[in-house]
Amino acid sequence: MTDTSTNMRLKLPVACFILEIILIILFGVFVEYDYDTSAKLFNGNTGNHGHGTGHATGHDAGTSQNTSHKSDRNDYENDFYYRYPSFQDVHVMIFIGFGFLMTFLQRYGFSSVGFNFLVAAFSLQWATLMQGFLHGLHDGKIAIGVESMINADFCTGSVLISFGAVLGKTSPLQLLIMAIFEVTLFSVNEYILLGLLGTRDAGGSMTIHTFGAYFGLMVTRILYRPNLNKSKHKNSSVYHSDMFAMIGTIYLWMFWPSFNSAITEHGDPQHRTAMNTYYSLAACTMSTYAMSALVAHDGKLDMVHIQNAALAGGVAAGTAGEMMLTPFGSMIVGFLAGIISVLGFKYLSPILEEKLKIQDTCGVHNLHGMPGILGAIVGAVTAVAIPKEVYGNGLEKVFPDVASGERDTSYQAGMQAVSLAVTLSFAIIGGVIVGFILKVPILGAPPDTACFEDSIYWEVPGEEHHHQELTAVRTEESDKLND
Amino acid sequence: MTDTSTNMRLKLPVACFILEIILIILFGVFVEYDYDTSAKLFNGNTGNHGHGTGHATGHDAGTSQNTSHKSDRNDYENDFYYRYPSFQDVHVMIFIGFGFLMTFLQRYGFSSVGFNFLVAAFSLQWATLMQGFLHGLHDGKIAIGVESMINADFCTGSVLISFGAVLGKTSPLQLLIMAIFEVTLFSVNEYILLGLLGTRDAGGSMTIHTFGAYFGLMVTRILYRPNLNKSKHKNSSVYHSDMFAMIGTIYLWMFWPSFNSAITEHGDPQHRTAMNTYYSLAACTMSTYAMSALVAHDGKLDMVHIQNAALAGGVAAGTAGEMMLTPFGSMIVGFLAGIISVLGFKYLSPILEEKLKIQDTCGVHNLHGMPGILGAIVGAVTAVAIPKEVYGNGLEKVFPDVASGERDTSYQAGMQAVSLAVTLSFAIIGGVIVGFILKVPILGAPPDTACFEDSIYWEVPGEEHHHQELTAVRTEESDKLND
Amino acid sequence: MTDTSTNMRLKLPVACFILEIILIILFGVFVEYDYDTSAKLFNGNTGNHGHGTGHATGHDAGTSQNTSHKSDRNDYENDFYYRYPSFQDVHVMIFIGFGFLMTFLQRYGFSSVGFNFLVAAFSLQWATLMQGFLHGLHDGKIAIGVESMINADFCTGSVLISFGAVLGKTSPLQLLIMAIFEVTLFSVNEYILLGLLGTRDAGGSMTIHTFGAYFGLMVTRILYRPNLNKSKHKNSSVYHSDMFAMIGTIYLWMFWPSFNSAITEHGDPQHRTAMNTYYSLAACTMSTYAMSALVAHDGKLDMVHIQNAALAGGVAAGTAGEMMLTPFGSMIVGFLAGIISVLGFKYLSPILEEKLKIQDTCGVHNLHGMPGILGAIVGAVTAVAIPKEVYGNGLEKVFPDVASGERDTSYQAGMQAVSLAVTLSFAIIGGVIVGFILKVPILGAPPDTACFEDSIYWEVPGEEHHHQELTAVRTEESDKLND
Fold first, then answer.
1. B with C: how many residue pairs have Cβ under 8 Å apart?
2. Secondary structure of residue B78 in the 3-state scheme
3. Cα separation of B245 and C96, whole Å?
4. Residue A22: which residues within 8 A CB-CB, separation 6 or more?
5. I need a labelling partner for B349 at 20 to 30 A (CA). Which of A364, A460, C457, C471 fits?
6. What are phi and psi of A20, to 5 degrees?
């Protein structure tokens, strides 16, 4: 049953060991505690020091007044207490949310959760370094703390979105190699947007969702399998696998407000972002159910829509969520996102597969791609449509460059739009290149007949041994019921 | 297999679209950011403004000293940091807790999680408006933030309790209509209790649990199905569905301390409420296991009891949890709640069904109804039994009207008791009326033969396709084992 | 099918009722609110009072400057806001993490989650008292709050580790009795380490993991069943049970940073511990996947390794996590822990079973035993290897006795090493004694033929009744696919 080329006995250990040893060495050379995690710095008695946290440049613009490290500050002012609950919610989304969302396939649950786990564990380490190199190198060192942990998890999320596109058709080795390149490109794109262009994208409609989706779609396009229908009967759900997937869906839905608000400025922006996202998701759920019943066979709801499209409201609120979008605006955005997403699953995905040869296993184009673009557009429009007077003195927390007079709102909106184009370019070009890299035969991709199948990479146990006895019980009971 | 009357192709989309559009318009007209979510207000430099948060009146009595909005306040004093972790725990209870608790039915998992999701997404939006209109309209506007989000989730919880009573016997359209009315009545009852009567009910023994349970019981009474035994074989669990249900149970159990303490006053009341609930639940679990083994067949534990009765300690600590009940008192309350709840499942539920024609699918009378009443009584007794001197200067956070000298503790206790009667009246009368409304034939209720069955409203996949191959494997293994 | 000796109808209720009534009485006599949960004390206007919290002595050494209870302190300074999110993460690990991790057995899911639930609910109450008696009795009273709740959950974790060793082979009554003794011994050992020896062990590599593992291994050694192979076919997983177990694994993995940091000092130590653990776990996951593919059959990954060994990095960072270990050091520790743990599962567990007659159902020796010892050693080495200058003014939060000049770092390291020996002694001797106590026949242990089987203690439902209809559907579909 196992092809030797897919055998991971040596390939996977060698890759994991080499990668981890490289990571450890690089951490040893470059990484240090930031002011909030270091015993010496946090409790230091000199007030005269730079701000050395390693989080993304764009994210901490304007934070200086909040996190100025006074030597006499209280332990309770440690950023841990203001970021860590958000971090844990994001963490749950990455490992439970993405992991279980992908378990909808009937025979790919081990791989969905398990490769998600492996790829994420690698990516968050690599992202710490890449984001640190690009955004936060001070005196040759990357200083890290809870905010860099959130940013690393965010970057990991992008990789996992791409994983959704290629789900079932790649070896764990291919996924690790994809992660190496994707994390790197993600960090470059993020730096250009947040650091150079001064773009606002707290929840990552562009940096995370649009990037991850189109990157993954290009990879799966290059890895196109004309004979994938040989595994078609495994490329679907069963009753219990849909239930496991709903665990992922619901966790993503619940914690999306924490995701979008995790690295906004402290105070009202964080609070507002969470609330906007909450209402966007609620409205999105309503339109998702409506559209699912409308387009699905026989007026019945389709689990694929519920599991995915109901989340599009979180994606679409990723850029504008921190702005004064209002719950009213957020609900309109979520409402539209749900409609677009269900229509994508119903009508666009089949076309993408047939015409463009894009085999998008999880439909990431419908959950992350289109809603991500919608979110980017909403962000650009909101930036210019809401007058800056609406923000009052709070403007500098959301648009520091506008508050400082460096740019006006229409310029900000223009930069937001440019950022979408930059992101799409990086994602598409990067995805194509990485797709070709992943075609190297030695990487152990599964044959067409064994896609969407755990047993090629996992020891898979049988089903219940008590089946025989239970059948007897069941038959008895059925007899009774039929009386 | 599908009856045309249950076909949701047009009904559900029309309902969802109309409802959501109404919600969006009303949000546009009435809803605005509160002081902690608005960029302008939070960072404003005028100290002279009213307190415009939209949360329930009774809940913020006495908070003025805590949340006075000074113009120079720090970002770290934003209420987000003191309520949001509690909110997220409550959110998990609503969507995972209630959603998965109801998946115990063998063929109703999609509907349990999925309709829970839809109804909750609608209810939290509608509740924001209804609670806002009744409790927090200032200058014609409802100002919202994390506390109103918690209150909206609370109201949603009440609707989901009622859903438990009618589980398996209603269409999603019926559930949405039930939610419209129930949210409204909930808000009126809540306003009377907390706003007019000055009742304390932080964890909602009365407002949430008693109201939701008896409302749902009346609805299911009016929707009585004499021939429900045609679906009887589906109205039970299977092994895996019980495992999924335990996910719901455990999450409800773990986060109940957060639920009861989510909208108490800050400081010691929030801390104390969480701790009281923690010990109440622990004691309740002990008595639940004891009673289950005692009354169940052959001394074996019954999953129905464990999944439900072990939670009764949280319900019963909902009113008195914020008072100086002590862990000792909390444990006694939880201990009794577990006993009452198991006895209810074993002896009372069959009587309710046979004699009173109340078909209570999830046994909400045992988990929310009786323990809710117990909690209300314990609250009234505790209010008068613990001398106010025990609270010292902290009295005004728990009993502001007693602290201000407006009333004495026995008057407070009287109001607590009156509140129970008011709540029961609202729930019973409201439930009856709404039950009749839901009997309108066009709403698509399932026929008696298709209750507790997902496939009437959902595309349901088959079971594992690999069954054949596995059977072969299994047989081989069984042979070996039988040697 | 049920042996009368295993019938729990009277035994379990009697045990639960008596234990709970004793608990309630002892709580009534000894337990009171601490300064942060009491309405009177928290809002008191006298500044002159002692520090009466009931948490473990060693854990609060040096905290006085942080938690000094000034009469004018703000509600926002209540410890609730700085510990409760950590507490909830720990709580999830105890009830969902441990509970679902053990559901990997095909027919023992009810017992895994259910007995975990019962034993934990009992243990946390008993631990509150035992830890209070030993660590925090003031004027004959135990003052409790969120920190004591975390400590109680920690102690409970230790009992659940031992449960993993005997999983499937004990009655709920035996488990309760084991918990009575284990909680007591845990508290004594913890007091010796943290209170008398001044050892640092914030995440409990020694107090929780090493103690729980070797205690459980000794119990299962004494309860050795030579004919356990009669139940061998049930002592394995099936596809869905492995999926449920992954829920437990992922939650433990995600929240381990919260676990290790839950009762460190506030400020930088808590922040640093969480971050060190995060990187330790990520590195551990990489080495776990590498080793699993390397040693498992045919290069395929083994779910047993992924479910367990990937967590060893959290265990191994339990002692040194709060020290200035650096992410670099943490990753090395995690990397080694994963390797050791997989090797243990593959090569050591069979030897333990065959040669030493230790039937370790969950392999707790590999997840908690060896990694716990590794963590203790790493802690001792780190204590002396990192110069105290690296801590600057933050030294007193981590090594208060070194900061005060009472001891030097090498003495501290020596105490750390002595603590490991003390812990192992307590665990091994205690486990042997308790093992013999559990052999009392009346306790209702399952017969060899009915180990790893829910139906001996639980009402177990059948499997899906719709099986017949679905088989028909499936056959049709299979036919189509085979065309």
1. 248
2. coil
3. 13
4. none
5. C457
6. -70, -40
Which DSSP string do the residues of C76-141 spell out, in sequence order?
A: GGSTHHHHHHHHHHHHHIIIIIHHHHGGGBTT-HHHHHHHHHHHHHHHHHHHHHHHHHHH-EETTE
C-beta of residue B171 within 8 angstroms of C-beta of residue B457: yes
Report chain B's C-alpha Rg in angstroms: 23
Return all residues near A287 (Cβ < 8 A) that are at least 6 apart: A334, A335, A336, A337, A338, A339, A342, B16, B17, B20
Structure tokens at A111: 């791989």
Chain C CB contacts of B391 below 8 Å = 39-40
Burial class (CB in 10 A: 0-12, 13-18, 19+), B1: exposed
Q: Which residues of C244-283 are buried (b: 16+ CB within 10 A; e: fewer)?
A: bbbbbbbbbbbbbbbbbbbbbbbbbbbbbbbbbbbbbbbb
**Of B445, B3, B432, whose CA–CA distance to B225 is shortest?**
B445
- Summarised one tens digit per residue, pLDDT across range A47-89 is 434 333 333 433 333 333 334 444 456 899 999 999 999 999 9
Q: Kindly determine whether residue B283 and residue C20, on different chains, have CB atoms separated by under 8 Å.
A: yes
Query: For the segment B317-337, what is each residue's pLDDT rounded down to a tens digit?
Result: 999 999 999 999 999 999 999
Sign of the Cα pseudo-torsion (B272, B274, B279, B283, in order):
positive
* Residue B345 in tokens: 């499942």
Give the whole-angstrom CA distance, residue A449 versus residue B259: 50
Concatenate the DSSP letters of all residues of C184-247 into one string.
HHHHHHHIIIIIIS----TT-IIIIIIHHHHHHHHHHHHT--TTGGGGGGGSSB-HHHHHHHHH
Residue A282 with chain B: CB contacts under 8 Å = 121-122, 124-125
Name the class of domain B4-73+85-456.
mainly alpha
CA distance A242 to chain B (A): 8
* Rounded Cα gap, residues B92 and A97, in angstroms: 13
Candidates B312, B206, B301; CA nearest to B253 is: B312
Strand locations in A133-265 (E): 137-138, 141-144
Closest by CA to A33, choosing from A154, A149, A186, is A149
What is the distance between the alpha carbons of residues C137 and C129, in angstroms, rounded to a whole number? Answer: 10
**Could you list the pLDDT tens digit for every one of the 483 residues in chain C?**
445 688 999 999 999 999 999 999 999 999 999 999 999 999 985 443 433 333 343 333 333 333 444 445 689 999 999 999 999 999 999 999 999 999 999 999 999 999 999 999 999 999 999 999 998 788 999 999 999 999 999 999 999 999 999 999 999 999 999 999 999 999 999 999 999 999 999 999 999 999 999 999 999 999 999 999 999 999 999 999 999 999 999 999 999 999 999 999 999 999 999 999 999 999 999 999 999 999 988 899 999 999 999 999 999 999 999 999 999 999 999 999 999 999 999 999 999 999 999 999 999 999 999 999 999 999 999 999 999 999 999 999 999 999 999 999 999 999 999 999 999 999 999 999 999 999 999 999 999 999 999 999 999 997 654 443 443 333 334 444 443
Q: Residue A382 belongs to what H/E stretch?
A: helix A370-385
Show residues of chain A in contact with B88, CB under 8 Å. 85, 89, 254-255, 258
- Compute how many other C-beta atoms are within 10 angstroms of the C-beta atom of residue B347: 10
B234, two tokens? 């589906």
Within chain A, how many helices (H) and strands (E) appear?
22, 3
The predicted model scores a pTM of: 0.93
Instruction: Delimit the domains of chain C by residue range.
Output: 4-456
CATH of domain A4-456: 1.10.3430.10
Cβ-count burial of C298 within 10 angstroms (0-12 exposed, 13-18 middle, 19+ buried)? exposed
Tell which A residues from 239 to 278 touch B, by Cβ distance under 8 Å. Answer: 239-240, 242-243, 246-247, 250-251, 253-255, 258, 265-272, 274-275, 278
